[in-house]
Design brief:
Length: 250
């Protein structure tokens, strides 16, 4: 059965996103890894905001503060957008909430690029904005690739010298090939040794659902199986802070 670069790339990305969750079948060939930090499911942005004692994790008091902040934000949104006063946001009210948030983000963009301060973006200002966004996205893409390599190096750097030697690269390649084979075996419904468009769609759907469950695990404070507006806002804010941190590091 042939392993294509496509499978290696996908599984490599999956490895970056789930470095601790999946055991390494070649772990015996490497020195004993350093113990995982507790509460590593909380992102750096959340830890920065709520880890007040700066010990790299959230204790019960800090978790309570995080939950209270999200609940307070939810209460503010409910008070502002619950037009019919039924104690929850229906679809129309959620739409109004999202529209207001998009409007606020748009206004921030206008304020940033409206150099002549006339309240709108003319063609020249829009061109500057598009160029800045393209440059920003290019840096993010480069940074994402760099972070992928950093994460893979951290996982497979058995002698902890900060780089991958030939033996460590071989271990990494073998592990990614094994995962590619497992992915192919799982989603190759017609057994032709490759993933067609339908099978790729099924694979991506399953992977998206897995990521969704990880997001719920982090941000679904009230444990109702979905992200309420305040919880979704906390997730977006966290992602934005991560992007800004990445951008500043490039």
């Amino acid at each position: 059965m042939k392993i294509t670069p496509y499978f290696i790339t996908i599984i490599g990305l999956a490895a970056v996103m789930n470095l601790q969750a999946e055991p390494d079948p070649t772990a015996a060939a490497k020195p004993t890894p350093k113990p995982a930090v507790k509460n590593e499911t909380f992102s750096a942005a959340i830890l920065e905001k709520y880890d007040t004692n700066k010990d790299g994790k959230l204790d019960d008091t800090e978790k309570a503060a995080m939950r209270k902040a999200i609940q307070d934000r939810a209460a503010e949104r409910l008070k502002k957008f619950d037009v019919n006063k039924d104690g929850k946001l229906d679809d129309t009210e959620k739409a109004a909430d999202l529209k207001a948030e998009r409007g606020a983000r748009y206004q921030e963009t206008v304020n940033k690029y409206d150099t002549n301060k006339d309240g709108i973006l003319d063609d020249k200002e829009r061109a500057v904005m598009r160029k800045a966004i393209q440059a920003h996205n290019a840096k993010l893409n480069a940074g994402a690739k760099n972070l992928q390599m950093v994460a893979l190096t951290k996982k497979y750097d058995g002698n902890h010298d900060g780089k991958l030697d030939d033996a460590e690269k071989a271990i990494m390649k073998k592990t990614l090939q094994i995962r590619a084979m497992e992915r192919l075996k799982k989603f190759d419904a017609n057994g032709d040794g490759k993933l067609d468009d339908t099978e790729k769609a099924a694979a991506f759907k399953a992977e998206r659902e897995a990521r969704h469950q990880e997001i719920l695990k982090k941000y679904d404070v009230n444990q109702n199986g979905k992200l309420d507006p305040a919880e979704a806002a906390a997730h977006r804010e966290d992602l934005q802070k991560q992007r800004e941190t990445l951008h500043q590091s490039l």
